[in-house]
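Acyl-CoA dehydrogenase family protein
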Amino acid sequence: MSAIDYDAFREEVRAFALRACPADIRETVAANRKIGRAEWSRWQRILYDHGWGAPSWPVEHGGTGWDVRQRFIFDEVTAECECPPQYHHGLRHLGPVLIEYGSQEQKERFLPPILTGGQWWCQGYSEPGAGSDLAALKTRAVLDDGEYVVTGQKLWTSHAHEADMMYTLVRSGDGARKQDGITMLLIPLDSAGVTVREVRTIDGWHHVNEVFLEDVRVPVANRIGQDGQGWEIGKFLLDRERLGSANTAPLTQYLRRTRALVRDALPGRDNEVRRRALEMRLAQCEAELAGQRELGRRAVATVAAGQPLRLQPSVLKAASSRIQQRVSEIALEVQGAVAASRYSTTGNEAVDGVEWVQNYMFHRARTILGGSNEVQKNVIARDLFGS
């Protein structure tokens, strides 16, 4: 087997991204505006037609068969080219779970539409009172004549209003630990008894929802793995979700755009003191980001060597979320006087620069979603010092 020329691969990805990603989608990404199913699905179909639909999947399931370094280069370069990241719930969350734990029938049924972008998924994990403490979930699933009858509520369910299906953790039994008796089910969102309701957030974007489940019948064939195996499967998924922070290119692009905002919005000698103070803060963020980039590369090398990641995903997630917040704070300080006073949670289309305000509001949640930073610190402490 010949050695991979990673520099040539990087240039191949760059040339394709600049040529193939539609200009309107790249413009939306560059302007920090929210993208939705329409843009993501169009870009996914382009990647699929090129044979790059699933960079992290093995070839036998329709993936590229790339090694972990190639996958990292792909994510980094496409972000540098202002292409959107691939929609994660199907490709990077559920897809690997199905490949690892799913039945052959489930793989044949669900993997192809994920690859093409034709089927949209959301994650039903968090509940009222069971967010970071996921093991405290209360949504109940009771077996009845070959089906689970599911009753409960999910909260903060991103993109449920656009999704066709939800992969979710439910409580199907009890045990000595809270983690016992949890099962993963795949639930069509058009099932009888499912209600999706928008959760209004201060950024003005619609991306999270409540999902109510009232006696929803789910075939046992839609269970991944065995009954009670959900905690193991959920941890498998979350470890891969948090490794996404190893790709610092999107945050690097956001910092670059913020630096340009500071330069353009505060020109001349009259603004020099303020401009230089903000540029110094951005330089500090950039230095931390350089460290984050190196940590990410080490995490990628760890995966490539087949070694356990241990605390690395938690370190990456906690650090990147704080950098994102600090950069967005600087952007708001510059743009706030212009846009924030006219900002509302609806009707912002005509407000110039409102995307900076919305990004600031959205990034407030970065230290909570995907496992709060407090939880990540506990994970890190247990790994370093023992429980």
